[in-house]
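Page 47, continued from p. 46.
Same chain as before, 311 aa.
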Amino acid sequence: MDLAEIPVLSLDADREALPALIGESFRTFGFAMVRDHGIDRDLIDRAWELTREFFALPVETKMHYFKAGQGGARGYTPFRTEVAKGATEKDLKEFWHIGRDLPDGSPLAATMPPNVWPAEIEDFQKTFTRLYAAFDRVGAELLSAIAIDLGLDARWFDPAIEDGNSVLRLLHYPPVGGDAGGAIRAGAHEDINLITLLLGAQEAGLELLGKNGQWLSVAPPEGAMVVNIGDMLQRLTNHVLPSTTHRVRNPAGDRSTHSRFSMPFFLHLRSDFRFVTLPQCISAKNPDRYPQAITADDYLQERLREIGLIA
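Result:
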């Protein structure tokens, strides 16, 4: 399979040129790769340790943290629960969700339940609270560059993501056996949110659908994160920034018998944000696809129903 030749951008060295560079990468691939993001290496290493420790717990223990009716918003979601939009086969994964801790009395509390934490894993809450905050910071920096590329003020997204419904997902794809090298661990899909920041894509399996209809392998260098556009940003920009279809395929050979772990941070808007297509993304050749306003939470609930997380 061909490799997606996505340029690796530096959040430090490329700071001045980042808006144009990330805009070009997004328009070409729907994806970007970013290094020098500033998230502490020791923090990331500790997060991986705790992720492996949690998923190694007995299923009965993990199920104590499954909250039925929440759509997987917080805590544990068991193996073979989520299904890609339009697919029939459920994904070969289990995951844990960490969300934002809202201040007391927040009007957004009805759409953002409180976190739950596994009592069995020492330092879990402390570590992932810190990592969530670090992803939050990097995500805001990347959105600032995206805003500039779109001709907006650098801080345009700040109020739109303040107390946003962002989610840090700890993902485990269990081994599926050496005879299942072509198995799809996560079906072809597009993400729901604004942008996704992903750690753990060094392990083979992540693929994006190129504009020519061919699947391309995504392989970031060590220490870099993968960033991709979600459907919310696609909607807001009237498809000027496209949300690219991607999947996770079980690798062939020896790696097919290994677990795959990854950590996507799904950066979301505030639940009460109302989508209004950006005027600069509307033209005679690209008329407004979304003339009817909808809140970010309404959109999210619609998509959660489509992927089987809520009824």
